[in-house]
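Cont'd.
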Amino acid sequence: MTDMATPQGKDTARAKPLTRLTGKLPGSLYRGGEGMWSWLLHRITAVAVFLFLLLHIADTATIRISPEAYNAVMGTYKNPVMGIGEATLVAAVVLHALNGIRLILVDSWTKGPKYQKVMLYVVIGLFAVIMAGFLPVHLRHVFGGH
Amino acid sequence: MTTVERSLPRLLQTPPSPSSKRAPRGRRGRSNGELYGWIFMRASGALLVVLIFGHLFINLMTGDGIHGVDFAFVGGKWADPFWQWWDLVMLWLAIAHGTNGMRTVINDYTSRAGTRLAFKGALYLLAFIIVALGTLVIFTFDPCPPGVAADLLPAICTA
Ligand code: HEM
Ligand code: HEM
């Protein structure tokens, strides 16, 4: 395995005896559990949004070809399959952004590390609220009328 | 710096000190670059929340949402310098933040120096092209091109 391909990295071996002694390392982010999952989700959403952004600048650039060309490209964004894709993209952006704010607070707010787990639940809660507000409106645009 | 090193303050549950961001002694000629990168990821992230959430809200939640997005819609927005600058800052920050982040990801998954260099070279080239293209598009855009049917154009063209 490469250098740091997993969040546990190469110090898992060293951490093991300690874990056996204490049962569970205090604040053991990145050793499995929710810390590792939030790290993985942050990374997956980051790469997905980055790839979309490259494509998105290219599709927006067709606006310099002609109004008809741009409208044709945007037309492909308006079918139900793409509609689901847009909802997934928004979910990825919102999750990455909220967890990003959490990471900023963990690192820069003195009480951040203490509340990092609480903040993860806040992230999940806010994510649910935002998506509950967004999805009905977006899905109505995608599937309703027209 | 690797992911684990960057997250050490979190692992140890202590707030980071700038010195903890410095590359450990003995690492070949590393500087404070990683510290500035680390700060940049946080500063740009905070700004991007406002820019991107605003972008998504206006384009997906108002009016007809995705069905309302066409040349006339964009023409109406980009006729206003406010939205031109909004999009320009969003473009530059998102690409800089994303590229710096992808650099970390590449560092984590490549072990051979040659592979790493090739991926990063491709990344930087792509980032440069996309920023140049996006910037050019925003500022060379004509909301009322001549010889186009009026129903494709934003309302400002006929007013
Ligand atoms: C499905 C979701 C999205 C839709 C429908 C959408 C739509 C649009 C439209 C219509 C424009 C043209 C100008 C404007 O309206 O301001 C645009 C430009 C832009 N969008 Fe989005 N967008 C979406 C998601 C995103 C996301 C997630 C990002 C950031 C990661 C983003 C970044 C940008 C940027 C940087 C520009 C400027 C492009 C340029 O400089 O040529 N968009 N988008
Ligand atoms: C919307 C607001 C955003 C916030 C608050 C945010 C926040 C952050 C933070 C704090 C990090 C650093 C994580 C760490 O050092 O462990 C990060 C990493 C990253 N972000 Fe963002 N980000 C945002 C938007 C974006 C966008 C639009 C993109 C893509 C263009 C992106 C791509 C990345 C990448 C590729 C990484 C590296 C991931 C990794 O190392 O696992 N982010 N983000």
